[in-house]
Design brief:
alpha+beta; about 45% helix; five-stranded antiparallel β-sheet; flat; 22 helices; about 750 residues; disordered N terminus; single chain
Length: about 750
């Protein structure tokens, strides 16, 4: 089997080279057929793209001239357009045409920039336009341009009869030629737009003038083939072999006009693309062959040195381990044979005595079953057989674990270490006593774990010695560190930091809370105190003082000062408050919010410009009973909208019942009167989807007119006035209030 693998590794590269050579020969024969199909596809696809873009441009031009002619027809007050010169300039500036021209019903057309006219009544496009038709015509010999002009014409009407036509035009060189610029794999193509008589409107070649008959440019066979393929209108490419050009040609008629797109891929461009593809292919093949040659050379050298490297590799590992580990062994993964390289403790001595009699599996099992603490024996399970060791080391380069051994009534810590050299079938296992290291490291580890855990919870953490007025930093952020000055005492540092991180509105409270001169007294008999404030860079922050040490009187002497971000918590809290105080249907404040506001006003009193409005929707019960609750909900939402638009800037609006609204606002008499007028106007003009009428009765009371009234009496008076207005509404409309 091994011999077969070696033969395969030797002959495989040569087989690959042979297959590549065969592939090159096949490729050379097939590339031309491939490109024939590719050229056909490219020609047909390019013609389709060009045709769609020109079709779209023609459609836009026709739609725009139709729109302008319709606007012109609406403005005409006689059969002739007054001041057509100003009209033409006005619409030209607002369209994508280079010019717009007006032709009178008698065929007279103004000569640009003059007051003279010339007769175009004999031209086909004028006759067609006077019949009420719109269309496109090409002016191959324009007086105002060196290239052909694409003209879009549309009739103008006065008193239901054609009163003339409008034409909008643009240069084919400017608008059409950019759409013809497509290529074949970066190589040149020849593209033209021709009319139904195969006169050239625009071409990609600068030396092909517009207006030239295609028959004059090429031999008869080219023009005949082109005309035949155009009439078929099948958008299929065909080979072209003429004295003028060789290659592939494709022609397509435009959808909404009698023009054709002619697309030619010259043979020189096709050959150039094939040459580029061949160059890239042969470069890739050359790189593959070079890679294979390098691979053969390296594989051959590797085959000679593999065994040598395997021997050196694990010896280097052993040499390195011998400096740090007391006992080092090399295990043969195939035979489980153990080689001893270093022995320093009891396990090494026991294992050495058993090497000639037992395998690795037996020796390791005997060791951990007798010397290792029972609860740690499971740590040896992943490595208690050679197969398991191989599996572990196939995933990781190294594997180690710490376990405990019982010695003379003492528990000692040991470390096992396993490693596999890069080459060969051996692996190394080593052991060392790390009890002294564990003892010293545990204390530092415990302290670091505590600080690390706290740091994850808090944004900043500092230990403050209140007696010596010093501070020790455990963790902080850059925004705070920028204002810390280790040369000043803790009190001054605290004041500087808080002044620069707090929003102005919370600064006074925060400085009082973080005053280190009073913190000892404030924390007497307290474990911690906290407050919340808004920071300039992290949103809402909670600051905490936690007592660490205190004197005999219970006054704090050392405290931990921490901060933590509670912005998300605050947002959730504010959202819950908003939900609890918001009416679900109208999104106004609800009864709960209304009662809280009344309680606050009762405690603090109201100002002289205070006003109160009590509102009630008229006829809501009838709407719910006869049309449905969807209509009733529409009425309630609309009433809320009217109230918000009228009074929203003056105060707060509450929905306190099904059809009941209360408005608490502040404003002078004129402002409130104007808002009430707007409120009534909005009701009269309102139209809904399910109902078409909205009526709200309301009662207004201004405190300035009733200074001797209590808040309760103001509300009662507003309700009384509202009910009076409601009774009046039902009487005037001859309605039963109970319905």
């Amino acid at each position: 089997m091994k011999q077969k693998k070696e033969l395969f590794s030797i002959y495989f590269p040569f087989t690959v080279i042979f297959l590549i050579a065969v592939s090159i020969v096949v490729y050379s024969f097939s590339i031309k057929n491939f490109f024939k199909n590719q050229v056909s596809y490219s020609a047909e696809n390019n013609v389709e793209i060009i045709s769609k873009e020109i079709d779209f441009m023609f459609l836009v031009g026709q739609n725009r001239i139709n729109l302008i002619s319709n606007l012109t027809s609406d403005m005409m007050n006689s059969r002739e357009l007054v001041n057509d010169k100003v009209f033409s300039n006005t619409f030209t500036n607002e369209s994508f045409f280079s010019s717009i021209e007006y032709i009178r019903w008698d065929g007279q057309k103004r000569i640009p920039d003059t007051d003279l006219y010339y007769d175009v009544s004999s031209l086909e496009y004028f006759k067609d336009g006077m019949k009420g038709n719109s269309g496109i015509w090409v002016d191959f010999n324009p007086e105002t341009s060196k290239t052909a002009l694409i003209n879009f014409y549309s009739p103008i009407y006065y008193s239901n009869q054609v009163a003339g036509i409008l034409t909008g035009c643009y240069e084919a060189e400017t608008k059409i030629k950019p759409l013809l610029n497509v290529n074949f794999y970066g190589y040149k193509t020849i593209n033209m737009l021709v009319d139904e008589k195969f006169r050239i409107i625009a071409a990609t070649e600068d030396d092909i003038p517009s207006g030239l008959d295609l028959k004059e440019l090429t031999d008869d066979d080219f023009a005949i083939n082109l005309i035949l393929n155009a009439k078929k209108n099948n958008n299929k490419s065909y080979k072209l072999y003429s004295d003028v050009a060789k290659g592939f040609c494709c022609v397509k008629k435009l959808t909404d006009s009698s023009c054709y797109v002619v697309h030619l891929i010259p043979l020189t461009s096709i050959n150039g693309a094939i040459k580029d593809l061949n160059l890239k292919t042969y470069t890739l093949i050359g790189a593959i062959i070079l890679f294979i040659i390098i691979y053969i050379i390296l594989s051959t050298r590797q085959a000679y040195s593999k065994q040598k490297r395997a021997e050196i590799s694990y010896l280097n590992v052993i040499e390195a381990l011998s400096h740090d580990y007391q006992d080092v062994y090399v295990i043969n993964a195939k035979t489980s044979e153990i080689q001893i390289y270093n022995v320093a403790h009891d396990f090494g001595k026991k294992l050495s005595a058993m090497v000639s009699e037992v395998s690795y599996e037996q020796a390791i099992k005997l060791y951990y079953s007798k010397d290792v603490e029972a609860s740690d024996r499971k740590l040896f399970e992943p490595v208690n057989t050679v197969e398991k060791v191989s599996k572990v080391l196939s995933k990781e380069k190294e594997y180690s674990f710490i376990y405990r051994v019982s010695r003379n009534g003492r528990i000692l810590f040991f470390q096992a270490y396993l490693s596999k050299p890069k080459e060969g079938n051996n692996f190394v296992i080593a052991f060392k006593n790390i009890d002294n290291i564990i003892a010293s490291e545990n204390r530092a580890l415990l302290q670091n774990q505590i600080i690390s855990s706290i740091s994850k919870v808090y944004l900043t953490l500092h230990l403050v010695d209140l007696v010596n007025d010093t501070v020790k930093e455990f963790t902080t952020v850059s925004e705070v560190k920028a204002y810390v000055n280790a040369e000043v005492n803790a009190s001054m540092q605290m004041t500087a930091v808080m002044t620069n991180v707090s929003v102005p509105e919370d600064l006074e409270r925060l400085l009082e809370f973080t005053n280190l001169e009073t913190i000892a007294d404030r924390m007497k008999d307290k474990v911690y105190i906290s407050m919340e404030f808004r920071s300039l860079f992290k949103g809402w922050i909670r600051a905490n003082f936690i007592r660490v040490e205190s004197d005999s009187s219970g006054r704090a002497t050392k405290v931990i000062f921490t901060t933590q971000v509670i912005d998300d918590e605050k947002r959730k809290e504010q959202r819950l408050i908003s939900i609890a105080n918001t009416d679900e249907l109208t999104h106004l404040l609800n009864r709960h919010a209304y009662e809280v506001q009344l309680k606050m006003l009762a405690e603090k009193g109201v100002k002289e410009d205070f006003a109160y409005i009590s509102c009630d929707i008229n006829g809501l019960k009838s709407i719910n009973d006869n049309i449905g609750h969807d209509a009733g909900d529409e009425l309630i939402r609309s009433a809320a909208g009217c109230a918000t638009n009228a009074f929203g800037t003056l105060g707060k609006i509450y929905r306190t019942g099904g059809d009941e609204f209360q408005i608490i606002l502040n404003g002078d008499a004129d402002t409130i009167a104007e808002a009430c007028q707007n409120f009534e106007t909005m009701q009269k003009e309102w139209k809904g989807k399910l109902i078409d009428k909205l009526s709200i009765s309301y009662g207004l009371v201004r405190y300035a007119e009733n200074l001797n009234y209590t808040l309760k009496e103001i509300i009662q008076l507003a309700d009384k006035r509202m009910y009076k207005a409601k009774s009046k509404y039902y009487v005037e409309n001859n309605l039963d209030r109970r319905k």
